[in-house]
Amino acid sequence: MQIYIVDDALGAAELSAQLIMEAVVDEGARNLGFATGQTMVPVYEKLIKLVARGNVDMSRAAWRTFNLDEYVGLSGQHPGSFRYFMEHHLFQPLNLEPGQTHFLNGLAQDLEAECLRYENVLHAHPLDLQVLGLGINGHIGFNEPGTPWDSRTHRVRLSAATKSQNRDSFPGAMPQEALTMGIRSIADATRILLVAIGGHKAEAVYRAAGGAKTVDCPASALQDHPHVRLVVDRAAAQLLLSDGQSGAHAEVIHVRPAMGGG
Ligand code: GLP
After folding, report:
1. CA distance 137 to 151
2. Is the dihedral of CA 185, 195, 211, 155 positive or negative?
3. pLDDT tens, position by position, 229-243
4. Among residues 30, 96, 195, 196, which one has the fewest Cβ atoms lying within 10 Å of its Cβ?
5. In which domain, by residue range, is 163 found?
6. CA distances from 90 to 47, 109, 128, 253 (A)
7. Which residues are known catalytic residues?
8. 37 CA distance to ligand 1 middle (Å)
9. CATH code where residue 229 lies
């Protein structure tokens, strides 16, 4: 695992976007797994700017996107759905065609069959890059603590911690369930980019990268992955830094602030 520690949140977002661009432009990544959440908002803002600046036309069919998870019972038009989030924050600004983007359908009649369908889609289009945020309880996607590491796409009941973390997107009733790629489906990606910003993520970051590998912290499964980059700001890295523990095989890179970025 390579851990990039950046001074502030904006710098971490900028670096994350640069690493996505590097994978897309320099390393030929075509099948891209994307995540939702507040962490991703500035990352996608920066990515849209970099794509424009680099004159990359991602609306060509060569690129395909695959989203990590979706709430059960919401249509893609619901403002709380992850499909809506992605369309608004990334896919419309990049002019992606509907055929390029892939989502779990939280309205499917048979949710188990929907999980299998998605897993088959992933099998046919192995992910070159999976972008991930981090839950305060260490979840990735909606893989809650206790999820087996060999899990594939499945249906989950959301934990109280996750519901309270995500409640702001729901002025009304909040979904109780979701569909999510499993830990194995995520770890099958060739490259992983995990991003965590803010002091409220410090414990989850510590447990993901510096603590023991345990199903109690789903993100700690990534310690076994051969190509993981973790981007954090100093606030999210504070427990790693104070303990001097960054995981047995981790390489820590302190990133200097970029001048004149934007
Ligand atoms: C949700 C998503 C996760 C995301 C997490 C972090 O639970 N299912 O994929 O990583 O939120 O969200 P935030 O970035 O808002 O802290």
Report:
1. 18
2. negative
3. 999 999 999 998 886
4. 30
5. 2-255
6. 8, 28, 18, 28
7. 69, 137, 139, 144
8. 4
9. 3.40.50.1360
